[in-house]
Amino acid sequence: MANKVERHAAERIRLLEMEASLQRSALALTFEKWEKRRALAWGGTLAQWGWRLLAAPRWRWLIATQLLSRLKRRRSR
User: Residue 29 half-sphere exposure, CB side, CA atoms within 13 Å?
Assistant: First the structure.
């Protein structure tokens, strides 16, 4: 009788360990998805800010003059 109870307890522990492993895998997958989603959201926000910045003519002109002056300096060397 005691042997049967021990086998039952060992089987129960094995099943619980398998279930815990499955839950850890699912949780890791969920965290990975959340991290990707957060990175995409951050990148989208950054792109939106860049688009707004370039929409203003003054900033476009400032960026263009900076780039052209750097190119001009490189050519003169």
Answer: 6
CA distance 73 to 40: 37
Residue 56 dihedral angles phi and psi, to the nearest 5°: -85, 120
Q: With 90 as the cut, is the pLDDT of residue 18 above it?
A: yes
pTM of the entire structure? Answer: 0.51
Owner of token pair 């203003």: 56
Alpha helices in 1-77 (DSSP H): 2-55, 57-76
Smallest CA-to-CA distance from 50 within 59, 41, 39, 58 is with 59
